[in-house]
Design brief:
By secondary structure, the protein is an alpha+beta fold. It contains nine helices and 13 strands. The protein has one domain: q2cbj1_9rhob like domain (Jelly Rolls, Sandwich), CATH 2.60.120.
Length: 315
C-alpha cells in the first residue's frame, strides 16, 4: 500500500500500517468504509443508507483547492509558533513549540485559527450544508464551534460516540469529519465501529449521559477498538483519506482515530463539525459569536489548543 495514493479506499488498500492504541489492525477486522458517492443525488436512498449504517462516506465531496487553502492557513499559524516546518502546507512537525511564549492565551490563539475564513469555507460552505439539509429533510445549520485537530505522531482518539457532547437541545445532530489533506492509515484517520449505532447496551450506556454535567464519567470507552470489534464480531472501518473526503455519522455510532505512526513527523490534519436542522433548538455552548464549547472553557478546552509537543487529554 502506498500511504500517499489515498483516493483508493478499496479493500486491498486497507492493509498494514494501521494501529490503534498500539495494536495492529489487519483485514478482515479492518475494512474500508462503504462509498456512498453514487447516492449523492438520491435523497431517499442517502437517508436510508445513513439510517442503516449510521454513517455515509463521501470521498472528495469538498473541493481540493478549498482544502489546501484551509490547510495552508492552519499550518502557517503553527509554523509561526515553530511547531510546523517550512513549507507549512506539508505539515511536518518540528518537534518543538513556541506557542506558549508566542501567544498570550492558548484559547484565543486556537479560536483565531479555527475561525479562519479558509477553514470556514470548508466546514460551513453551501455544499456540506446542502448535503446535511438533504439528510435532515429540511434546512441545516452548522454549529459555530469547530473541532480542528492537528494530530502529531503518537496521537489518537479513543473510541466514543458523540451523543454525550452534542445532544443537549436536540437529538437531531450529525457529525461531519473532514480530511484536510492526505490522511493515510499511518497518519491516524477516523475509524468507525461497524454497526455500533445499533448495539443496545452501548446505546443504553450513553443514553442520558452529558459529558459536561456527569463529570465523573468519560465518553471514551476502556476497550481498544480491536478488543471491541473482536468481542462483538464486527469490523473497524477506515481507510486512506484524500483531501476533501467527508464522513458523516450519527450520534450513537462509535468512532475514534487510529494512531498516527508516521516515521517522518507528519501531522494529521482534520476538522469535525456538527450540523442540525436550522429549526431545532440550539445549544448556546456551540452557537454564537463566542461559543464556550463543551465545558465552558472555549477553544482552549480542545486538544488542538495544546502545543503539538503536549499529550492530548481524553473526555
Ligand atoms: O479526528 C479525531 O481524532 C476524532 C474525531 C471525532 O471524534 C469526531 O469527529 O467526532
Amino acid at each position: 500500500m502506498s500511504g500517499d495514493s489515498v483516493s483508493d479506499n478499496s479493500q486491498s488498500d486497507v492493509a498494514d500500517l494501521a494501529t490503534s492504541a498500539g495494536e495492529q489492525l489487519r483485514s478482515p477486522r479492518l475494512a474500508p468504509l462503504k462509498d456512498s458517492t453514487t447516492l449523492r443525488h438520491e435523497p431517499k436512498a442517502l437517508r436510508a443508507q445513513l439510517a442503516h449504517d449510521g454513517y455515509l462516506y463521501l470521498p472528495r465531496l469538498l473541493a481540493e483547492d478549498d482544502i489546501v487553502a484551509a490547510r495552508r492557513q492552519v499550518f502557517s499559524a503553527l509554523h509561526e509558533v515553530d511547531e510546523i516546518a517550512a513549507p507549512p502546507v506539508d505539515g511536518i512537525f518540528t518537534g518543538r513549540s513556541r506557542r506558549d511564549t508566542s501567544v498570550a492565551d492558548r484559547g484565543k490563539f486556537w479560536r483565531s485559527v479555527s475561525e479562519s475564513w479558509a477553514l470556514r469555507r470548508v466546514t460551513h460552505g453551501a455544499l456540506l450544508r446542502d448535503t446535511m439539509g438533504t439528510l435532515f429533510g429540511e434546512a441545516a445549520i452548522a454549529q459555530d464551534f469547530l473541532f480542528l485537530r492537528p494530530a502529531g505522531p503518537g496521537k489518537n482518539t479513543p473510541t466514543h460516540c458523540d451523543r454525550p457532547f452534542f445532544t443537549r437541545t436536540t437529538d437531531s445532530v450529525l457529525t461531519a469529519w473532514i480530511a484536510l489533506g492526505q490522511v493515510p492509515l499511518r497518519l491516524g484517520p477516523l475509524y468507525i465501529v461497524e454497526g455500533s449505532h445499533q448495539f443496545d447496551d452501548i446505546k443504553a450506556h450513553y443514553q442520558g449521559f452529558d459529558v459536561a454535567r456527569h463529570t465523573h464519567r468519560k465518553a471514551a470507552l476502556d476497550q481498544t477498538p480491536l478488543q471491541l470489534a473482536t468481542e462483538r464480531n464486527t469490523r473497524i472501518l477506515s481507510g486512506n483519506f484524500a483531501p476533501g473526503d467527508v464522513v458523516i455519522f450519527n450520534m450513537f455510532l462509535l468512532h475514534g482515530a487510529l494512531d498516527n505512526i508516521s516515521a517522518n513527523n507528519e501531522v494529521r490534519l482534520s476538522v469535525d463539525v456538527r450540523y442540525q436542522p436550522a429549526s431545532a433548538p440550539r445549544d448556546p455552548r456551540y452557537f454564537g459569536a463566542n461559543p464556550t464549547g463543551t465545558t465552558g472553557a472555549g477553544y482552549g478546552e480542545l486538544v488542538g489548543a495544546r502545543p503539538l509537543t503536549e499529550a492530548w487529554h481524553t473526555r
